[in-house]
């Protein structure tokens, strides 16, 4: 699709919005219900498409992460929509409120929201924000990833059947189409993906002063205190790290474990993986890396770390040979004793590789986190509430999960977003509704019978104007 075609769709959506005005409560509910129905009625087709795109992607995982995780967000928005749409009363300045002045904030739709979604959770990361976008009364133009070709084509087919083009339009294509997409005069642009691409997205949006929400990633740390339960921590960390083979923006990127717990944690990690996946190579529950490019990148990270002195500890319960395989699977791999000159400690891993660092004083972990870009997520395992508060208050991240990983993104009443290099803006719940709305300030002045009271601040000025101003303030 070329620039003219994309522009034509955007013009069509804008004209529709101007003609019809903000959608009613009932229409917003209807749009969310149609989205829910298309997901649930076609869930097996979506899961099959995901498996085809990845080569091997756990169908059970896909059903959990790219189908059923979307539904709570839709239902939560539906349940709270009337309250969100009602806006909020505010207090006019004294003494105007006593004389009948009124103030309120009304949340109005922005119009058309452009949405660029990624390949790692292509269904969830399209329809989850779409619930907030629809709740706020907007229309959507969606550019899904070309990496998940079958899933993107299926989403377009389903959305084209369920929605008019003025409501939800899907634009397929590669990087050239993506670049053209970002140049449009949307009323808001949501991008989920890498920080490197986000710089180009933001630059293109800036040309048209289009506000952006960026959901990025980064190196989300795990801190395992000497007060943590090692088996529980290991099980939860490795579940999060092996889900989607670590191809998650919030995946644990590296672990900092107290020296007293290191051996115990590593042993429990190996046990956890063996329990999850007794074998890996032909196990449909263990997901493949998305393509050759990303597979080679991960292998290069391992080679670089090994060449610079790291100990590579592959967790391969059935001792399988991965040198020849139909997919691009990489076993969960621990990288022991990593140093900052290793590439694996300099870029987001986005795969099943997990560096393990040791510490003896909790302030070492705080210093390390603060010396690097603010992460999308931070994870703390421990039972010392004082230490927990110390870590959380002295570090900055988009979100935090305590004694687990990934958990905060699953909470519909919590905002999800990054900070600094891990993103800007947030959605989920009420924050999502507000992100995709214009908070319009509305003030109604006092009636005409009190108009003489305003004469003291109008020309021609008489007497001491400062005296009047002091009384008013």
From TrEMBL:
Active-site positions on this chain: 215, 249
What InterPro entries does this protein's entry cite? Ald_DH/histidinol_DH, Ald_DH_C, Ald_DH_CS_GLU, Ald_DH_N, Aldehyde_DH_dom, Aldehyde_DH_NAD(P)
Looking at the record, the residues that make up the Aldehyde dehydrogenase domain are 26-442
Offer one Pfam family short name for this entry.
Aldedh
GO molecular function terms noted in the UniProt entry: aldehyde dehydrogenase (NAD+) activity
Give the record's GO biological process terms.
aldehyde metabolic process
Q: Which family does it belong to?
A: Belongs to the aldehyde dehydrogenase family.
Q: What is this protein called?
A: Aldehyde dehydrogenase
